[in-house]
Amino acid sequence: MNIGILAVQGAFIEQEQMLSGLGASCFEIRQKSDLSRPMDGLVIPGGESTVQGKLLRDLGLFAPLKEKIEAGLPVFGTCAGLLLLAKKIVNDERRHFATMDITAVRNAYGRQLGSFYAKAEFDGLGIIPMTFIRAPYIESVGENVQVLSVVGGHIVAARQSSRLVTAFHPELCGDTRVHRYFLNMIETLKEAKRSEV
Ligand code: GLN
C-alpha cells in the first residue's frame, strides 16, 4: 500500500515511522512532482494548519491535492490535518481543503490545557492512548459523519467515508491501532470500488 505523507511542516516523520512499521510504503509529498507517484492514501500530519495551508498554496500542492481528496482519495488528518480538512473552523477565517463536513474549534483547549494526555474509547478499537498538543476539537458534525471518539464531551475523532480525522496525535502514543484502522479503511474502500465495477 502506497501512502503519501504531506511533509511540508509538522510531525510527518512519526507518521512515516508508524505506517512503515505496519508494512505500508510511505513517500513524502514536498513538491508537485511527488504527486505523480501512485498513492492509495494520504496523511496530513499535525503541525500548524496556517503554515501548512500557506505552504501548500505556495508550492502548488493545494489544488491538485484538493481535487484528489474530493475524488475520494482516502485521507487521514491529525490535529492540524483535521483543521485542513474541516469545512468550518469557528475561530479562524481561513479555510483550506474544506472537504469534510465538520465544524472545528482551533486551539480549543486554551493555554493551560494546551497539551495533555488521555485514554478514551475509540469506536471499534477499545480504549486507546491520546496525546493532545494545542489541539482542536470538533464542535459539530454533518449527517454523514461518524463520530469515533469523544473526550470530555468533545468529539476528537470522526470519519466521513474516505476521510478520517483525529484531534490527537496517535503517532506519538506508541499504539498502532488508529493507523491500522486507516489502512483497513483504505482496503475496505478499495474492495467496495472493485465490487462496484
Ligand atoms: N494548533 C495547531 C493549529 O492550529 C494544531 C496543533 C497540532 O497539530 N498539534 O494548526
In short:
The protein has 197 residues and is an alpha/beta fold.
If you had to describe this structure to a student in words, what would you say it looks like?
The protein has 197 residues and is α/β, with parallel strands linked by helices. The protein has one domain: Rossmann fold (3-Layer(aba) Sandwich). 28% of the residues lie in helices and 34% in strands. It is built from five helices and twelve strands. The chain has a seven-stranded mixed β-sheet. A three-stranded mixed β-sheet has the order 5-6-9. A hairpin with a 2-residue loop joins strand 10 (146-151) and strand 11 (154-160). The longest helix is centred in the C-terminal third of the chain and has 20 residues, at 177-196. The radius of gyration is 15 Å and the shape is globular. The model has no long low-confidence stretch (mean pLDDT 96). Bound molecules: glutamine. Glutamine binds at residues 46-49, 79-80, 83, 106-107, 133-135.
